[in-house]
Amino acid sequence: MLKVIIFVLLIGVVASLFSGLVFLFKDSDRQDSKRTLYALGIRVTLAAALLLTVFYGLYTGQLKMGTNAPWHQQTRGGEAPGTGAPEGADAPAVPADAAPPAEPR
Q: Residue 30: inside a domain, yes or no?
């Protein structure tokens, strides 16, 4: 639900931005028009609400920063995407074509 609210606020900010641009061009010859100023006020208010909503989501744990993106999720085979290696496996310390270490005497 929180992501839907964030999406709606973001669309509102963009719509207010473009409406302000339209009002700026249409009302450029009229000195007494305040539609551009009102569009700016609405955009600032929506942007503040958007920031507060994102901070609320981060604070409550509904939104997370870090590795919760779809490309960070484990695949069906247990491999990290694109590597062919098991999830969490480290790269070998020695390259595969290096000579084996000498046997101790």
A: yes
